[in-house]
Design a protein that fits this description.
The protein is mostly beta strands. It has one helix at 45-53; strands at 8-12, 19-20, 22-23, 37-41, 60-63, 68-71, 82-88, 98-102, 105-108, 112-113, 117-122, 131-132. The chain has one domain. It contains one helix and twelve strands. It is globular, with a radius of gyration of 15 Å. 29% of the residues are buried. Residues 138-147 have low confidence and may be disordered.
Length: 147
């Protein structure tokens, strides 16, 4: 029986050789753990893609249960834009450095992580994982929400 390797993922619009910690910008009304100075990873490739597409200028709302996403400024999403997913081996991260935010987010309290590999995707691939709700009003009260 072949063993499938499990990776945790990091999505970014930028290409890196090394992932570095940075202060996250959590929306208001979200847990303080979502704004740590850490490297954030997820076991979910759809959520990694969403994080790579979202930005301060174009915040996102993700509903993990209904598998929907909406963008604050959907007209600014370029479906041809190249984004990057970084693959990290969780067995190389000491348990005491892992802060589980929820089942989709793990904050890693390390200065740097060298990914096992990086793959490029087009932003349009988000539609394989989420239904895009562009016809809905973005929830400005919450400044974007991951739920």
């Amino acid at each position: 029986m072949e063993h499938t390797k499990i990776y945790w993922l990091h999505g970014s619009p930028k290409r890196f050789e090394v992932l570095k910690r940075r202060k996250a910008q959590a929306p208001p009304m979200r847990p303080s753990q979502e704004s740590l100075n850490a490297i954030y990873l997820t076991p979910d490739i759809g959520f990694a893609l969403a994080c790579a597409i979202g930005s301060k200028e174009n915040r996102i709302e993700v509903n993990h249960f209904q598998k929907t996403i909406r963008f604050e400024n959907p007209h600014e999403v370029d479906p041809e834009k190249v984004i990057y997913i970084y693959f990290v081996d969780p067995s190389n991260i000491p348990d005491e450095r892992k802060v589980w935010i929820d089942q989709w987010q793990i904050a890693i309290n390390m200065d740097e992580i060298i990914p096992v590999k990086a793959e490029s995707y087009k932003a349009s691939e988000i539609s394989k994982y989420y239904r895009i709700l562009n016809n809905c009003n973005f929830n400005k009260k919450n400044n974007g929400l991951y739920f």
